[in-house]
Design brief:
5-stranded mixed sheet; 4-stranded antiparallel sheet; mainly beta; single chain; disordered N terminus; 11% helix
Length: 342
C-alpha cells in the first residue's frame, strides 16, 4: 500500500471521534428507553413536560417557530453568513450568494478546507486553518494574511468595529487582528479553553465578544480589548444545559441582545438572556431536519435563518404553536416573537 494513502486530516479525525461519541450517547439513550419499557414507572418526575433522570422530555417537543421557506444549495454547507439582505453559503470550494428568497445572485470559487465566514458592510472574510482571505461582496479578492502562529488551526471568526477575532483550536485561544490583518493580541480564558473538537464558536454584539468553551460546556464573555467578563452554562442533557463532549458549536444573537446557541449530537437551537438565563429551546433536531451535526443559525429581526446539510431555511414565530411553550409567556421585548399567525 502506498505510504500515507489512508491518512486523514486532524479535522476529519476529530469529526469521526465526535460522531462516535454522539453514537455512544444515542446508544445510551436507546438503552434507557428499553429499560423504561421494562420499568415504566421508574425514574420519572410528575407533571407535564418535566424531565426524567436521563434528561429526556416525557412529552413531544413543540417548537414556537415554524419553517416559512427554504431552498437548497448545490453541495453540503460548510459555513454560513447573513449579510444584510443576502445569504452567503460556503461549500467545499465555492461561495454562493443568494437573496433571501433563494435566488442566486452570484458565486465564486475559493480554496478548500474553509472553516468560517464573516462579513461587514463592504467585505467578506473567509477563514482557513492558517489564513484569512478578504473579498468584496462581488467576489473580488482584496487581501489575505497568514496566521500569527505556525501551529494554528483556526475554527471560527467574528467581526467587530476595526477588529477580527479568530478562535484557534490548536493553541486554544482567541486571536485578535485589525481588519487589515495586523496581529493585536491573544485572548486566553481564565479557566482555560478545552476544545475536544471543532466547536469553538464566536460572535460579537453590543460591545461584548461571546465564545464557546465547549469542553467546559459554557459560553464566555469578553470585552473587545480581551478582558474576561463572565460565563454561563453547565453540562447536562436537560434543556438549558449543554450536553455531549463539546457544546455549544455555533453562537448568534438577537437585536435585543439575547444569545442564540446551536448544539450538535442532539441538535437543538436555544435562547439565553444577556445575563445567561435560559429562555427556551426554539428548534429541536426533528424540526431542524435530524442528524447529529449542529445547524448554523443567524438572526435578523423576527426571523431565524438556519443552514444545515444542503438547505437554508427561514423560521418565524408561530403564535398558535408558541402558546404551548415557555416562549409565549416570556416577558422579554424580543423581536423574534413577531411572526406568523399573530
Amino acid at each position: 500500500m502506498e505510504k500515507g494513502k489512508n491518512k486523514i486530516s486532524r479535522k476529519k479525525f476529530l469529526q469521526i471521534c465526535s460522531a462516535v461519541f454522539a453514537g455512544g450517547s444515542m446508544l445510551g439513550v436507546s438503552g434507557f428507553l428499553f429499560r423504561r419499557r421494562l420499568n415504566p414507572g421508574r425514574g420519572l418526575s410528575d407533571g407535564k413536560n418535566k424531565m426524567n433522570t436521563a434528561g429526556l422530555p416525557q412529552d413531544h417537543f413543540t417548537s414556537p417557530y415554524k419553517m416559512v421557506s427554504s431552498f437548497s444549495v448545490p453541495d453540503k454547507i460548510e459555513a454560513f453568513e447573513l449579510a444584510g439582505e443576502k445569504l452567503i453559503a460556503a461549500t467545499s470550494n465555492n461561495i454562493f450568494i443568494y437573496d433571501r428568497t433563494g435566488n442566486l445572485l452570484h458565486n465564486f470559487a475559493v480554496g478548500s478546507n474553509l472553516r468560517d465566514i464573516a462579513t461587514d458592510d463592504d467585505r467578506i472574510y473567509l477563514l482557513f486553518p492558517t489564513r484569512v482571505e478578504v473579498y468584496n461582496h462581488e467576489g473580488e479578492w482584496l487581501r489575505d494574511w497568514e496566521a500569527c502562529s505556525e501551529q494554528s488551526d483556526y475554527c471560527a471568526m467574528a467581526i467587530a468595529p476595526g477588529a477580527v477575532f479568530v478562535t484557534d483550536v490548536a493553541n486554544k485561544n482567541i486571536c485578535k487582528y485589525t481588519t487589515d490583518g495586523n496581529f493585536v493580541k491573544f485572548i486566553q480564558s481564565p479557566d482555560g479553553f478545552i476544545i475536544p473538537s471543532y466547536s469553538f464558536g464566536i460572535t460579537y454584539t453590543n460591545g461584548i465578544l461571546y465564545c464557546s468553551n465547549p469542553g467546559r460546556h459554557q459560553v464566555e464573555k469578553y470585552s473587545p480589548e480581551g478582558n474576561y467578563i463572565g460565563a454561563f452554562g453547565k453540562a447536562g442533557g436537560a434543556t438549558g444545559m449543554f450536553g455531549g463532549c463539546c457544546n455549544p458549536v455555533h453562537l448568534a444573537y438577537t437585536s435585543a441582545g439575547e444569545i442564540i446557541t446551536s448544539e450538535k449530537g442532539n441538535p437543538r437551537i436555544s435562547c439565553y438572556g444577556t445575563n445567561g438565563e435560559f429562555r427556551n429551546v426554539l428548534l429541536d433536531g426533528k424540526t431542524l431536519g435530524g442528524g447529529y451535526t449542529a445547524y448554523d443559525v443567524k438572526v435578523d429581526k423576527d426571523k431565524l435563518f438556519v443552514a444545515g446539510k444542503k438547505l437554508i431555511s427561514t423560521f418565524r414565530y408561530d403564535k398558535q404553536s408558541a402558546a404551548q411553550t415557555a416562549c409565549s409567556g416570556c416577558g422579554t421585548d424580543c423581536p423574534l416573537r413577531n411572526g406568523v399567525n399573530v
